Amino acid sequence: MSGYDVDLFVIGGGSGGVRAARIAAQHGARVMLAEEYRLGGTCVIRGCVPKKLLVYASRFRAEFDDAGGFGWDVSHATFDWPTLIANKDKEIARLEAAYTATLDRAGVGIAKSRAVIADAHTVQLADGKRVRAAYILIATGAAPGYGDPIDGVEHAISSNEAFHLPRLPPQILIQGGGYIAVEFAGIFAGLGAHVTLVYRGENILRGFDDDVRAHVRMDMEKHGIKVVTGCKVAAIERIGQRLSARLSSGNQVGVDCVMFAVGRPPNVAGIGLEAAGVAIGKNGGIAVDDYSRSSIANIYAVGDVTNRIALTPVAIREGHAFADTVFGGKPTIVDHRNVPTAVFSDPEVGTVGLTEAQARAQLGRTDVYKAMFKPLKATLSGRDTTVLIKLVVDGLTDRVVGCHIVGEGAAEMIQVAAIAVRMGASKADFDDTMALHPTTAEELVTMRHKSASYAREAAE
Ligand SMILES: Cc1cc2nc3c(=O)[nH]c(=O)nc-3n(C[C@H](O)[C@H](O)[C@H](O)COP(=O)(O)OP(=O)(O)OC[C@H]3O[C@@H](n4cnc5c(N)ncnc54)[C@H](O)[C@@H]3O)c2cc1C
């Protein structure tokens, strides 16, 4: 690929871009990558990793509360937000350095700069420098959105700022019903804040199984989070140190902080897509084919900017597959089916495959197996919580097409269950597997009776 300065220019140093750059370099390509903020991208700097650290912090409250039933006295536990944030920041800086070192070792040139496409083979950096590239990979991710314009929106923060608040807000209103809103509701409530979650839809966690949605909401409310649905924030006003949020219902809520988590539009604006003729898809992301190739033959896109499935492991797989396809001589398509996913809420959710509603719409016959029970730990702790385990089965083939878990350890369980679901395990395979006792997960292999739907049970 002589005639070019590099074989590959990657725009964006997040999950997808870093993996693609490293693998392409290992395949022998001359690679350059531009990152305008911090290497590691959303996941490492202000997404999955810092969020999970905050989730861990928030869960100590329940552990301390539960400890009494097991004979412990931890009644004098106190929490310090600045210590948590400082320790989290230290770990994120360590990870950022590790990402930089990995790219250095692979021989990838790093430009700490915004990059914009000037034409199909040229990328321009912030200082005006132009780099000619045989291939361009767009991996610019997504950014927090704020929904419809409202008065006072400038007073609201997004998840980006939530990681750097100077103090824990005593009262917070979170608008949104997706996993980020629900997770932060759990984080702030666990750390001691009064949380109101406001969502315009009929129930939180749209797209998840209906039983999961109902169960999570029920438990969140039991644990003191106020969930207001069918409603949104209409205006925000600053009154001294506090904020007043006017809801579409007419109610006024006084809080110390308003956070919006109402979706993450792909970062497609102002990066020169028009200059190169790169097309946007109906989903608002860069339109790509199965190999992540855009409408322009030498320009590819991976990760959140394509708005396929906005998760780190998916972006990483897409970046890796791109590098193998273009520079490794191994055309690779990423399978976007049966992607396991978690909500690190309180209670936690792990899910893979079809929801009951999807299965009923897509399959000839659907069987559902469900267990709802008090976990063993709650017997001594006295915690008012139940676990939900649900298998969705193709009634004609007996294949397990969906697995949904709500409760402690759900994310860890679902990662393993996803292997079985992806391999096409039948309900009989689950039943033939010996139970591991005493665990929550043993219910996955001991459910023998088909259930009516949760919604029906609740109504009866
Ligand atoms: C609060 C939160 C929690 C999350 N939790 C999870 C989770 O638990 N599990 C999970 O799987 N996923 C989670 N995600 C989603 C996950 O972070 C993303 O799916 C993932 O980071 C996408 O990777 P990416 O490479 O596509 O984009 P990103 O990681 O966003 O990287 C894009 C990079 O491009 C840079 N950039 C943008 N434009 C330019 C430009 N013009 N020039 C140079 N650089 C540019 C950005 O600064 C950014 O660093 C979470 C996200 C958030 C916000």
Walk me through this protein's architecture:
Helices cover 33% and strands 22% of the residues. The protein is of the alpha/beta class. The strands form 4 sheets. Strands 1, 2, 3, 4, 5, 6 and 14 form a 7-stranded mixed β-sheet that branches. α3 (48-67) packs across α6 (179-190). The protein is globular and about 70 Å long. Mean pLDDT is 96; it is low at 454-460. It binds flavin-adenine dinucleotide. Flavin-adenine dinucleotide binds next to α1, α2, α3 and α9.
Number of strands: 19
- Assign a percent range to the helix content: 25-40%
Radius of gyration: 24 Å
Shape by Cα distribution: globular
The end-to-end span amounts to 68 Å
Largest sheet: 7 strands, mixed
Helix count equals 14
Unreliable stretches covering 5 or more consecutive residues = 454-460
- Percent of sequence in beta strands: 15-25%
List the helices and strands and how they pair.
Blueprint: E1 6-11, H1 15-26, E2 31-34, H2 41-46, H3 48-67, H4 81-106, E3 109-111, E4 115-119, E5 122-125, E6 130-138, H5 159-162, E7 171-175, H6 179-190, E8 194-199, H7 210-222, E9 226-229, E10 233-239, E11 242-247, E12 252-255, E13 257-260, H8 273-276, E14 299-301, H9 312-327, E15 341-343, E16 349-353, H10 356-362, E17 366-373, H11 376-381, E18 387-394, E19 400-406, H12 410-422, H13 427-432, H14 454-459
